[in-house]
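3.2 Worked example (two chains)
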Amino acid sequence: MDKIKLEILGLSSSQSQSGSFALVLGETEGNRRLPIIIGMFEAQAIAIEIEKIIPNRPMTHDLFKSFAHSFDYKVEEIIISDLKEGVFFAKIVCSNGGNSIDIDARPSDAIAIGLRFEAPIFTHEAILAEAGIVLTDENDDDITELKGDIKGESKAKSAKTDELQDQSVDSLKELLNEAIENEDYERAAKIRDELGKRN
C-alpha cells in the first residue's frame, strides 16, 4: 500500500470539543489536510517538542525516547494506519538495525514520540480519501492561523506577548525559569521567543 508523507501544519483548541485540540496534518506534496482531535496532554507534548522547550522533568514521550535509546532502538517512521468509526489508529515503526517492530499507538502519542526522533509521518490514500479535507483559498487563512497557534502567535494572546516586550532580559530569564518550574510550557515558549528576538 502506497504511503503518503504528511507534515504538521497546526495545533489549536478544538471548537467542537472542550479541552481537546485539533492537530492538522497536511500532504507534503498535495493540498489535502487531515485534522485529528487529540487530548490536552498530548497536544502539550507535541507543542513542547515543536517549540524545543526542555521541561524540568522528562515527560512520558521523553521517557520512551530514553528507553528506546538504551536498547539501541530508533523510530523509523510514524504511520496513521487506520480509521474506524471516526477513530484514527497509528503505528510506530521501530528498528535496532536488524529487527523492525510495529507498535500500535494513538496518533497523538505516535506523533509526539516521532517528533522526538525526527521521524517522518505517513498515512495511506484510503485514509486521506475518507477523512482528508481539500485546501481551498477560503480555508487557507485558517491553516495560516493554526500555524501561528503552534508558535504562540494567535491574536487572542498577543496582549501577553506585548507585556513581555517591556521586560528586561534578566526579568525574562527569571520568568522563563518560573514558567518551566510551573510546567507552563506555552508561556515558556513565548518568553523564549521574546529572548530569541533580542539575541
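3.2.1 Second chain
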Amino acid sequence: MLIADDQVMIRDGLAALLSSDPGIEVIGQAGNGREAVEMARRLDPDVIVMDIRMPEMDGLAATAELVGAPDPDADPAGARPKVLVLTTFDLDEYVYEALGSGASGFLLKDASAADLVNGVRVVAAGDALLAPSITRRLIGDFARRRRHQRPSPKATAALTPRELDVLRLIARGLSNAEIAGELVLAEQTVKTHVGHVLTKLALRDRTQAVVYAYENGLVG
C-alpha cells in the first residue's frame, strides 16, 4: 500500500502503524497528490491512504486521476488501486467529492489504530467504508439534496426484485451478513446478488452502489 500526506510526521506515523500489521506492507510514501499518482503508477499498490489537502495536486484530484479514468500507459489487465481518504475534515462537500472521485472509503484522522487497519482491509477487499461518525449525517443529507421523487425506470429495469432489495439494504449500510439475516438468505447468495447488482449497473464497488441508490430514489 501507499501513503500520501504532505506532513512527514503523519506519513511516518501511519507507515509505522500500518506496517506493524503482518498483513499490510507499505511500499511507498508521497508528499503530494502528483507524487501519489506517479508512485502509484510505478509501484502498483493495492490501497492508497490519501490525504485531501496537499500541495501541487490535492487528494481528490489525485484519486480521480488514478481511479476515475484509465491510465493509457497502464496494463489493461491491471487493477486500479483502492483509495481510502484520511483527513482531519469531515465536511460533507469533501465526502461527496471523495466518493465522486472514486474513493472507496473515508476516515477521519482521529480514528483509532484498529479502525485504520480495518479500513485498509475493508477497501482492499472491495468493500466501502465511511467513518461511523459521519455516515448517518451524510446519508440523510445526501437523500435530501439528491433524491429524486420516484425511482428511475432505467435504474430498476435491469435488476430483479431480490437484487433491488439487496441494493436498498446496501444503501442503508448493511454488511452481507446483515443483509442475509434481513432477507433470510445464505451469505454466499447475498454475495452473488451484490455481484450481479454491481455488474448490471456498471458500478465499481459498494460505495458507488450507495450513491447510485440515493441518486435514483431507491431509498429515502
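3.3 Remarks
Confidence is low (pLDDT under 50) at residues 74-78.
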